[in-house]
Amino acid sequence: MSTPLEYFKSQIGKKLDKTPSAAGNWLAGKLIEISEKHIKVQYEVREELCNPVRILHGGVASLMLDDAIGIANFAAGSEFLMTSVNLNVDFLSSALIGDVLELEAKLVRSGSNLNHWEAVIKKESGKIVAKASSNMIKTHIKLNELNL
Fold it and tell me: What are the residue boundaries of the Thioesterase domain, all occurrences included (predicted)?
């Protein structure tokens, strides 16, 4: 059986639509890079990801950030499931239907019970759409008991 990191490395260049996260599958991002401390995912802004004024919905941007951080943290290799205890997001510019966005997240600190991540979503021009920080805490649930 492969490790979570090996599995996700096999998904590089593919659409992330067959993960354990139904919400993340709906985003349909494309995995660009992944390691124990880093992830890069590309998203295309579709109409259903937008608010009524046809720009990327802030909640959807937050979902992108939380889901990518979750995937990367899962791939980091903890024996136990880790879950978000917070997600702090700054929305800095808008993204329109058809925009291609790149999300990059990096593990800033890995502790025995808590991992701290920072992430940013950018347009192809390099302009920042949103940035976030998140803490993931270890639960008592062993990953091998989840059948993921």
Answer: 55-129
Q: Which of 39, 133, 36 is nearest to 78 (CA)?
A: 36
Q: Under a CB-based contact definition with an 8 Å cutoff, are residues 41 and 15 in contact? A: no
State residue 20's pLDDT score: 86
Distance of CA 98 to the CA centre of its chain: 20
Give the strands of the sheet with 80-91, arranged side by side.
30-35, 38-44, 100-110, 114-123, 128-142, 80-91
Q: Closest by alpha carbon to 121, among 80, 92, 88? A: 92
Domain at 123, CATH number: 3.10.129.10
Sign of CA dihedral 75, 76, 79, 85: negative
The pLDDT, as a whole number, for residue 136 is 96
- Cα first-last separation, the chain: 11
**Which domain covers residue 94, as residue numbers?**
4-145
What pLDDT score was predicted for residue 1?
Answer: 54
Tell me how many domains the chain contains: 1
Q: How confident is the model at residue 145 (pLDDT cuts 50, 70, 90)?
A: confident
